[in-house]
Amino acid sequence: MLNNDTTPQTVTVTVYETWIGREKEVVAPGPVTVTLAPGHTTHNANSVPTIFQVGHSYEVVVTGGSPKVLPVVMVWSDMGNTVIPGTQIHAGEWIRVD
């Protein structure tokens, strides 16, 4: 997450595990709220397979903050930043839902 705004921004990120035919569930540790200073970045990495399971579907919801807060999601297959193909969502690919 990058705060590209000129003022501090507070955002909350919630990750849901989704299931066909079942209600989505919040993934541990639950919603994460951070305040970012202008021009600063942060991240919260969770592990595959302890938190995220290979083959499962997830929804990532970012609330609050300015449209200039730029989120990015990617899923790594290991602790060496090896991105699983097709899992990276760049800042420009997010969908705004009101």
Amount of helix: under 10%
Helical segment tally?
0
**Uncertain runs with pLDDT below 50, 5 residues or more?**
none
Note the main sheet: 4 strands, antiparallel
Distance between the termini: 20 Å
What string, H for helix and E for strand, traces the elements in order? Answer: EEEEEE
Structural class: mainly beta
Give the overall shape, derived from the CA principal axes. Answer: globular
What is the radius of gyration?
14 Å
**What oligomeric arrangement do these chains adopt?**
single chain
Number of distinct beta strands: 6
Q: How much of the residues is beta strand, in percent? A: 25-35%
Q: If you average the pLDDT, what whole number results?
A: 86
3D structure, described in words:
This protein is mainly β and 98 residues long. Helices cover 0% and strands 34% of the residues. The strands form 2 sheets. Strands 2, 3, 4 and 5 form a 4-stranded antiparallel β-sheet that branches. A two-stranded antiparallel ribbon has the order 1-6. A hairpin with a 2-residue loop joins strand 2 (9-19) and strand 3. The model has no long low-confidence stretch (mean pLDDT 86).
